[in-house]
Amino acid sequence: MAKSAKRWRRVSISVLVILLLASGGYWLWWQLGSRAIHQQTYRHTGIVTVFVPGYGSNSLTFGPMVQRFKQDKASDQVTTIHVSADGKRTITGADRYNGKNPLINVVFADAKSPQKEVRQLTGLLHWLRVQRHVTRVNLVGHSMGSNLSFNYMTTPHANLQPQVINYVSFASEFYRDPTTQIRALPKTLHILVIGGQVFGAKGDWAVSLAGVKRLAAKFKAAGLSTTLFVYTGTPVGAYHSTLHQNPYVDAEILHFLFT
């Protein structure tokens, strides 16, 4: 019994040490990644930024990111708009978008129906334009949310819509050649493409880095102002669903949109 107790004590201590080292490593990684953010001053652009999440997403996809952007003083207005399966909108936070770089986190109840989500996104942006007088927006899409944003921008609209100024696409590749659709994008659009690469892998364990680079190359070939950023690291920051919980990605998006 004494030997067994000692063995378990050693195992417990070893596990505790590993957890402490992992926690310390994560804290250091976050602090180093956040330095550029904390040293930056963000300008007031007058543009509303709309965050479009991916397949099977929820409020936690972009919720922490928009709150971090507010804490970092890039914005002073954060809103979450829940869109029900039948298109009803529930607003939490600011209902008028006249502050410093307002941020809108969109959450779709039916987050596995891309065609419906594109229609709902179109309706939401039309509502922002007509009812809230939002004339300019940025679109930030993760994974399928990037595809939704792209489909929205390349589809003709019969109703009034805001102008898209900047488009952030990350953790996304298009499996069909988007060349024809890209021609519908305005030449004034600025694009940031973000990809992840887990050490030793070909991408972020869900999307290939080659596909992300191919997408950026398509935008550039069409004459669009395009920046490519690739984060390479451990799954903690480079995995498909952790890229939006990564201070280095935060810094790239903040710099692209607000400096």
Automatic annotation (TrEMBL):
Transmembrane intervals: 12-30
Keywords on record: Hydrolase, Membrane, Transmembrane, Transmembrane helix
UniProt-listed Pfam families: DUF915
Domain of life: Bacteria
Entry GO MF terms: hydrolase activity
InterPro entries: AB_hydrolase_fold (IPR029058), DUF915_hydro-like (IPR010315)
Protein name per UniProt: Alpha/beta hydrolase superfamily protein
